[in-house]
Amino acid sequence: MGLTSNKVLALAVLSGVLLFAGTVWLWPRLARRSVRAVLGRVGLLFATQLAVFAAVGLVANQSFGFYGSWADLFGRENGKGVVVDHSADGADGAGGPLQVVGDRRVSRAGGARPEVGGRIQEIQVVGRTTRIASPAYVYLPPEYFQARHRARTFPAAVVLTGYPGTASALVDKLHYPRTALDLAKAGRMRPMILVMLRPTVAPPRDTECVDVPGGPRTESFFAVDLPEAVSAHYRVDRGPGSWGIVGNSTGGYCALKLAMHHPQVYGAGAGLSAYYDAPSDPTTGDLFQGDEGRKNRADLWWCLENMPAPDTSLLVTSSRSGETNYKDTLEFIERVKDRKPTRISSIILESGGHNFNTWRREIPATLEWLSERLGGR
Question: Which of 12, 117, 145, 322 sits at 20 to 30 Å (Cα–Cα) from 27?
Fold first, then answer.
């Protein structure tokens, strides 16, 4: 029986009820002051608490989709994501200030020399037009520091966390720099600059990458200020389609929206476990303040029906078991397939919940996909 099976949940609930009833029934017999009685009381209480904890955990997992299988729960799910390109279906300036505040190695990169293992720089960015300030990490590949590539420029990708998220998790938990380094060394992707940060640029508010009336103008920060600032400081390609964007959960929604709204900036956008419309809840507050135009633009379904199809590439991911966005993702793929020149690809896993382990399985294929689509469109 699978982790998300209703039978497993029912068994856990039934076990909890029976153990509770058994504890009440047997308690008088275990009230003696003997070692055997004490151990019996401890065992029943422990078993009852364990069953209740398991039942609550299973309910939470089914509600929020954290894990899709037992292997996923214990970190043993290792089947890699495979990109399916649906585009073939049925078809023959001066940037704002940027300051480097820290420097670190890429883990397991094989030495302290940046020309061998690349570098991760911690930066602070202040938006030229929005005045939004945000910390970020920038991964620079080894080629960036090699003498023979001194005049070379590189494609770049913005990498976003979910909400609330921490930028350091993109480095330490999701291993974006290490994965990019390994893939490039294996010849599976081009060397690429990664700009890693969270979409929560006005914490603790979840702005969903929207230009909120009266501020903060989060969409403009990611569409204008961040690419300008990074391009002014680092050797980033300046041709069309040189920038991509990828994110998970909230960051995935932001990535898809930014690529659709700003194809002249982002030649490709990948949404890992993304949703397709901005939520409204206590963490977001009133994002649109009655402005129907802004609300419609934040709805990717509305954009597909009412805006010109953008010349960009999109990647969406989900899993048949464990993700709540599976049906929406299939529908999104079908709708985009009819909206040329937009190109759509997907990664659909058999199982995988809304968690780091699932995204780590999808990131290698996603970075390869980005590498193939950035530059020279």
Answer: 12
